[in-house]
Amino acid sequence: xxxxxxxxAVAVAVLTVGTANAQDYPGTxxxxxxxxxxxxxxxxxxxxxxAEAMRKTMPGGNFxxxxxxxxxxxxxxxxxxxxxxxxHTLLLWHIGMxxxxxxxxxxxxxxxxxxxxxxxxxxxPMTLLGKPQLPANTYRDFENYIRANxxxxxxxxxxxxxxxxxxGLMWQHAVKLNDSMTTIPFxxxxxxxxxxxGGQVDVMCDQTTNTTSQIEAGRVKAFAVTTAKPLSxxxxxxxxxxxxxxxxxxxDLTIWHGLYAPKGTPEPILKKLNDAMKLALKDPEFIKKxxxxxxxxxxxxxxxxxxxxxxxxxxxxxxxPVIDAAGKFAD
Length: 331
Ligand code: ASP
Hints:
There is one protein chain. The protein is an alpha/beta fold. The chain has helices at residues 7-24, 42-57, 74-81, 96-103, 139-148, 163-174, 189-197, 208-216, 267-280, 284-292, 305-326, and strands at 31-35, 63-67, 89-93, 115-130, 153-157, 181-185, 203-207, 221-225, 254-262, 296-297. Strands 1, 2, 3, 4, 5, 6, 7, 8, 9 and 10 form a ten-stranded mixed beta sheet that branches. It binds aspartic acid. The site of aspartic acid has 15 residues, from helix 2, helix 6 and helix 7.
């Protein structure tokens, strides 16, 4: 008689293979953090520091970074949403995960359905910057200069839906200078920063993980920070006012980064990754590097998978009206 495997037997075999793979994880194959922006920028920086820390907390884990820039981060996110759910392709992305649903009428993936949430990593303030040649040295002078030169200047960002884009939109809306500058999109704020330093672009708002060293070296001018509270503990950034102090009532923008896997990644792999990530967030070396760049490593419940997802869902709801008020659709 011909052997016909029962459905149960097939299911058991599939489960056994899945479990065996999960037990062997990570094995010898690299675990890639897909960064949806150009190399050398703020998100890339977080990913590389986290990869280094997780190499220590998941022995044998060969964590690497791949840059898949474009469309404000949605190209890289889509790549991970469609990747094999084997724990070897992960997404390291920021607030864009929650901002793009409000900015794009159509996304090629569903942020809350197509990913496994692995935990929130850090929070990063932003700084409002000008090119070194800009004839302003204080926030007041800066705002007056932009107002006086409406229509003549340009503002760089890392694509529609990026943090720099959201920050620029919110700021222009808050000071009632909507569409006062031409926007110039780049694949990330690393190339945008090169152009700001070179004077090809006039203005940019970017995360402190990318701007601190440039401000310190005097390669760009900084005018304000975007957080509600001053960055009193940071040796350099404490000297800059918040936008609220400059009269922009309620202005409060902090960028956060989280780690994601494609939906359907086996549970034991998700647990291994979350455990290794949580240990990495306690690594003094990782904390020190991040703090030096103005970032704050997550210490609360949002490093847990369920809390990370609940936080992003709440951020999607919170950002939608802000983006609707400030901006335009990306598509
Ligand atoms: N985080 C982006 C980057 O790494 C920049 C942005 O979101 O504005 O380039």
